[in-house]
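Usage example:
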Amino acid sequence: MSLLSQIFDLLLTPAFAASVLRITTPILFAALGGLMARRCGIMNLALEGSMLTASLFAVIASAFAKKAVLGGVSAAQADPALVSKATTVGIIAGFIVGTLAGIAICMFLAYMAVGLRADAYLAGLAINTMATGGTVFILYMAAGEKGISSSLDSCSMPFINIPGLKDIPVLGEIFSGQNLMTYFAWICVAVVYFIIFKTATGLRIRAVGENPNAAESVGVNVKKVQYQAMALSGLFCGFGGVSLSMSYVQFFSRGMTAGKGFIGMSAMNLGNASPVGTAIAAFLFGFFDAMGNVMQSLAIPVQFVQAIPYVATLVGLVVFAIASDNKVKKLKAKQGK
Amino acid sequence: MPEEILLMDKITKVYPNGFVANKDVTFSINKGEIHALMGENGAGKSTLMKILFGIEPFEEGRIVLKGKEVRFNGPLDAIANGVGMVHQHFMLVPSLTVAENVVLGMEPKKGGMFDFEEAVRLTEEACNKYNLKVDARAKVEDLPVGFKQKVEIVKALVRGAEILILDEPTAVLTPQETAELFVELKHLKEQGHTIVFISHKLHEIKELCDRITILRLGKSVGKANIADVTEADISRMMVGRDVVLKVEKTPAKPQETVLKVRDLRIVADTGKPIVNDISFSVRKGEILGMAGVEGNGQSQISEAITGLLSYQQGSISVNGVDLKGKKIREIRELGVSHVSEDRNTYGAALVSSVKDNILSDRYYKKEYNKGLLFDDKKINEMTDDLIKEFLIKCDDRDDQVKMLSGGNVQKVVVAREFSNKPALVIANQPTRGIDVGATEFIRKRLVELRDEGTAVLLISADLNEVLELSDSLIVMNEGKIAAYLPDASVITDMILGEYMLGVKTQTPEEIARVAYD
Amino acid sequence: MTSKQIERRFEIFKTVVAVLLALGLALVVISFVSESPAEAIVAFMTGPFQRASRISNIIEVMTPLMFTGVAICILYQANQFSMIGEGAFLIGANLCTWFAVTHENWAGLPLMLTVMVIAIVAGVTVSIVPAVLKVKFRANEVVSSIMMNYVILKISDYLFYYHFRDVASGQQASFPIPAQIKLPKLIPGLRLHAGIIIGLVLAVLAYFFIYRTKWGYEIRMVGANQNFAKYSGISVLSVALSTQLIGGGIAGLGGAVEILGRYDRFIWFGTQPGFGFDGVLVGVLAKNNPLLVPVAAFLLAYMRTGADVMNRVSDVPIEFVDVVQGLIILFVAAEMFLAKYKHKLIVNNAKKQLEAKEAAK
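Running the assembly step on the lines above writes:
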């Protein structure tokens, strides 16, 4: 069988389609975080660091909360009712603390860029550096490990079987049984659309991003709006972080974002900061990422396959530029003659 | 006895770079009057108004509004106290609708959501009340300039402005739009509003205003009833002497054609043609003025000639060399100099030194390089000579350009552009926004260049400037040449105005004379 | 004193405060997390200077930082925020090793020069992607270069794993680098190698390049105001392109120097070594002036070495240096950091001058 047909066989399965949705999740969250920031006029390069921090804190909080409820009894020996209660508490604690950590990092960038007027690029990169080392530092302090949080017994957000849908062949396999965070990500696309276009805050965010002087001249507190938008940006990064360490895997590992923040940023650029366009672009990147995953079983060096999502992002940037160039050219050509 | 509504008492403002913009300025206005605030550029008018509006903090002094001392911590404070401002550069968000712009910052809500229909209603109500006609549902980016200004005024009024500050509102308007604005402003005054009107145009102030305050070099130097002073009085107070910006010049002796523009068409990114098949020539030893309201294609023409903008059709040549496909460097090598209308964007690198700014068109030449390295001695000599020759006020050649005043920045630009023996100078708004001294200096240099045999294309929205300096004139309207006037010395601003506004247009034959074919 | 002088002095003052403040915060953190804070802090602060071998170690650590630091200086002078230094460094080191281990029978000097050229070419080549994406397609170079760095990491992993990994070595390491091309040791008994000299020469050359040549002038003008550069006849796109390639080349050379000076085998597999990101700190601290790069690189190397010493004698993990590093960048980059103090200085000064003027009248 040729390599190409092998690839097609791998891609044309419901399991693959389901994995695309799964893998899209953190990218989509990051992209939505980038979108909120871009709409208020800030380039949020700290998406990566924010997600990474969120995923660590989610794991730590959920493990510690669970342990506290269990009260020193090991999960294997404890009363099942207590274990279930401990797990619920762990989930909630992880979700909340992880999200807050994500918000905190983006607010820190906002303070640097807005409050202290640091270059947002530099500040973003600096925060990523801090997050990379800081998470390992904190992990070591919390768990005595530097690579992976295997000694922390953390929880996972629930997986949802959708009644009715789950029994439909193919569709059920794809769309049912995903983690709560995956469904949540797509709901968030609608939420972002609503915030941006249907609320007063959204109107202000758009105004501030497009012409801060105009917004300021009518008494809009530009800094406040930017802080609000950055808090929302952090909120979605926080969700993204939780989706990394508390859904399909239940641990934190160093550098586990692996560029997903930047891929999300690219998706937002491709989508021109429109919620729907951004979601589609994020889905595309998720597709290539998933493709890289399944192709690891083929007789191709694994490194090539692993490079696919990054190459796809680079290609995406080019395609976007060519498409928007062509639009202008067409308009000009129409009038030129 | 008129009631004093606002007093700014002994205001002092120092900018972070050490520039003292206002020194003990006192400014007082009465309720229900239109009060003119005049002064040269850099006299401190805008700073004073920004302080009043809470945008800039001030170091000393006090503001008394309706008998109460106030200190605004931002525009929001000012607005809440009934002070509204229409900025020189519009403070609008282009992609939003008129209604959204109007209610921005005080959005009506319904069930937690933004209520767009209510915003439209509010806007239309205000428009009707004050007789300002704007479509509330239109996107601001689709509106002409005059309408954008109306949106700005509506914005202020909807917020309950009793005192309305207008910062050079007529600078961007056609005479008709200006006339319309004046009717609207007088209407507002009748309804009890107080207006602060900032302008450079004496006749406008004479026509519209009741009283006047004049600033000079950051200090208030005069206050008067308009009825009691003549235009000459005002201009004397502004500059401390009678300004007669007469430039001595002999009649031009035009020689062969240097710049030849034929059937030029330029299309904007949006697909809209901005320059429509125009042809003209500029000859050695003459200044051809290009008059017109800004935004009628002049900037695009200057950018096309100097290689900054590509054009779709037609040809441009300099001394017989076709410029199509030529790089900016190659065009400059043909002796084309360019004083850009926007010195902060194109004309200068503000964060760089005076030396680096002067060097930018010649740094690569053999005479300034020794082997792989710069010949610092020669470069320094050249720079110091130009600083002296062009009277650039700076501590030394390593000063950052952003530390200089507007006039001196423009002198740096001009020192570079005029000192390379240009065959053709494209001077686009060469004296906009700079002090009288620098203006006079630059105008004189332009005439000197002409006398030395340079061809000069002078683009200016300042009617006095084009009439004063040009030997002959073309007038631009909507991307086309509306008129060619071979002898600028016999033209009045009335005639020019009619062509500028498209009231009159010459026949194609008359216009074609400027090609000198 | 003029405002200009105040501004200049203030910048130096601010940088020093930023470094001290970040270090101070680090000490606070150490004293909270460590069981024996005093010991840890002493180890961190004075540890690096306690032995000659450790001073030699500082210089060894600062050597690669000088290359990526100079690369960042040049890039940032032109406002090109490419992070490609990271990938260029890695691929330079990788290809240099590959060529060296497969041509061990060559004589020392020719082989050494060849692998250095290979590293430079490799660095330039990988820089082409984000550079072209930027100038041709206006894609943000920060994002595209970081994506490219991941791609490079995978390529490097592949080449290493399949082409010059020494399976017999018992660890993830390449075949040994031939002894004849190793950079000479400067002082007998210490690990200090000649790479630092190459780095210093590079910093001086880069300084002359940026401030005293027409090419450097073009780079500076593109960085100062792109529109002005274009209007003056400078080809902004080709400057942006060539600057990014030069930056990549320098970082690539750094990769070779690091391998030839410090390592017996190529050992970077699976993760990015991080020198590109460190270069950002060095560039920012040096205010994009290559002459200050050695100072900035020394500072970072000192912190790294200190953290390493501390890590050995106490329980504080070395990663906290990343946090300190990030904080320094933030403090230096923050325009409003200490701005009130600066404003006061300038206002007082302006007032004084005004009074002096009035008095003189």
